[in-house]
Amino acid sequence: MILDRSNEFADAQALAAVAAASRNVSTNIVDLLSAGDAIGEEVYAHIRSLTAASGTATSVTITIEAHTAADFSAARTVLVSIPTTIAAMTAGKTLFAGRLPHGALRYLAVVIVPNGGTLTSSTDAFLSNDLQRNDFRTSAAGQPA
Q1: Among 55, 84, 130, 144, which is least packed by CB within 10 angstroms?
Q2: What CA–CA distance (Å, rounded) separates 82 from 98?
Q3: What is 5-128's CATH number, 2.30.40.10, 2.40.440.10, 2.60.120.1110, 3.40.1010.10?
Q4: DSSP the chain
């Protein structure tokens, strides 16, 4: 799998006591016109939990939103995950992995929304040209082992 910084939504982005139903937008917005060599015809989004989640939320829903402008004033949702339970958000767990639909708009962002309570966790999110088929193993510091 090829990883490119210009295709990275979040690198160990902290989700500290995110309130229920609040939209936690990724640190970075990916511009598909400057996505570099790592993007070909098939584009896959990967979102993984770096640390075990905690809080009162029952689950999280992850969406990928697209827009023609970087301000996301009227973003369009292009992918929605099924809700992932907080108990399933263990260190290194892939929360979502899937192919972006053809014809996505130029700018993309990942949005994580806790359902039913607060959420504390840390996530990575990125695009690649292939699909990671196994969960990442992480060290105590949250880095790949």
Answers
A1: 144
A2: 12
A3: 2.60.120.1110
A4: ----GGGEEEEEEEEEEEPTT--EE-S--EEGGG--TT--SS-EEEEEESS--BSS-SEEEEEEEEESSTT-TT-EEEEEPPPEEGGG--TT-EEEEEEPPTT--SEEEEEEEEESS-EEEEEEEEEESS---SPPPB-TTSSB-
User: Do the beta carbons of residue 64 and residue 77 sit within 8 Å?
Assistant: yes
Give the Cα-Cα-Cα angle 128, 119, 30 (nearest 5 degrees): 25
- Give the pLDDT band (50/70/90) at residue 39: low
pLDDT surpasses 50 at 132:
yes
- Amino acid letter at 82? I
